[in-house]
Design goal:
297 residues; 11 helices; 4 strands; single chain; mainly alpha; globular; two-stranded antiparallel sheet
Length: 297
Amino acid sequence: MINLEFITNTLSLGSLYAMLALGLVIVYGILRLVNFAYGELIMVGGYTMYLLTFYTPLPWLAVVVLAVLAAVVTSLLTELVAFRPVREKSLTAMLITSFAVSTILQNGALLIISPRARAVTLPQIFQTSVMIAGTSVPWRNILTIVTCIATLALLTLLLRRTVLGIALRAAADNFTMTRMLGVPANTVISTAFAISGIMAGIVSIFWIARSASVTPTIGLPPLLVAFVATVIGGMRSLTGAVVGGFVYATIISLLGVLLPPGLVEFREAFMFAFVIIILLIRPEGLIRSKTSVERVG
């Protein structure tokens, strides 16, 4: 049934998926690289929250700031150590590197912490709800929506009102021309990875809040969601990433309501069938970008 609860749940899910997709597409926009290690940045944020809440008396606000910072630092390190040396090689080398980074980070978590799920202590607000128009709405959903709006507003300001943001947009349109005009390539690419890390760190807070636990493989489901959402919206468009995130959330929520109970567990298969239909009609995604198809060399 489509009611206020359904709408807030869908908006919350869409907000989460939109932030996920943005973090993936901002790197793809410049490097033409689907970073398969993106999900592990969420894992890093989750384990940072687990370690800090379990072993330190830090307040929750400090914990989430440090979790986002850990994801950003990890993202920048992967760009510096793993991707930069092979950036001028083939796209295949970049893809294999991203798989390697993903596997290394996962195995690092397995060896250093544990293969078992670790409980993350969350503040009380993540387990409480508020009554709106006679409907119980979890604070977690409200916080997700508000955070998404604030993040999108700040990202829009960065991309439209700052020199660095304009350089990022120019690099996404034509990276070779941007470099010829004197914009340092390493600065632009590192900024894209930093923003990707920020998005992953923020998403880790709300993704972990849904299960209150973290595992070494927790990054795979959000990576798949981000990838599908960007394909739906358009791989070369930031706006498309946001649209794709909300479209994905709407379809998956509607399937959960409309499918017979016996078929609900197969809704992912129906979801991918819808994605195929969308791509048959709009192969470039719902939002067409003006960017060229060049890749950074």
